[in-house]
Amino acid sequence: MSLVTCKDLSKTYGSTTALSHINLDIEEGHIIGLLGPNGSGKTTLIKILNGLLTPSAGEVYIKEAPVGTESKKVISYLPDHTYLGGGMRVNEIIDFFKDFYEDFEPERAYDMLEKLQIDPKQKLKTMSKGTKEKVQLILVMSRRADLYILDEPIAGVDPAARDYILNTIITNYDEHASILISTHLIADIENILDQVIFIKNGQIVKDASVESIREEEGMSIDALFREVFRC
Ligand SMILES: Nc1ncnc2c1ncn2[C@@H]1O[C@H](COP(=O)(O)OP(=O)(O)OP(=O)(O)O)[C@@H](O)[C@H]1O
């Protein structure tokens, strides 16, 4: 089943066109990189998929239904900024997630916290930026969702922890789920991707499997990105 379908989707902010006639299909069982330069429309697209922005034109379906309460239940979303109240302890946030999301599995969250040596009793506001990001990613990946949408998941995380986190991402998701990851850290992440979407000035300029790109272009995704988007 198609997890995401966008038909002729456009978004404008006043006179700025952020997305222009996007047609997109995301199927089950893929890890997809949403890649593009600054201001190309990645966050706008992600916010529309999560119902935080409404399209100016076109249609969006999540599992064949319009974006709404039901689609929010099947998408686990990591935004590009901190959204959790700083005064809470991690274990309190875990309790909150457990009440809020039927598909949240606390034991997975505690297991990942332990591996990353994060104390569940610690308050968020006393944590470093990178640790806070790790906590948020752990929470998002501890749901049994159909679609994970991660907006810049590893930007503030140190390189040693990135490997663990990426490994956690690929080992913790169900084979019927898909993950859409927006990032500028392509070299770090490309080994776990099997599909990439290149977006430029609000338009999709490439939507292909990583395998076909490596075969046809004979280069890494990082190298191709630098070529396509050379300034
Ligand atoms: N609230 C807003 N009001 C007006 N213009 C906006 C707003 N949000 C985004 N834009 C514009 O829409 C375009 C797409 O922005 P968007 O944040 O989606 O890009 P992005 O690919 O996520 O960028 P980055 O990689 O820098 O995070 C840009 O031209 C941006 O200036």
From TrEMBL:
SUPFAM superfamilies associated with the record: P-loop containing nucleoside triphosphate hydrolases
InterPro entries found in the cross-reference section: AAA+_ATPase (IPR003593), ABC_transporter-like_ATP-bd (IPR003439), P-loop_NTPase (IPR027417)
Record Pfam families: ABC_tran (PF00005)
Residue intervals of the ABC transporter domain: 4-226
Record key words, sorted: ATP-binding, Nucleotide-binding
GO molecular function: ATP binding
Protein name: ABC transporter ATP-binding protein
Organism of derivation: Maccoyibacter intestinihominis
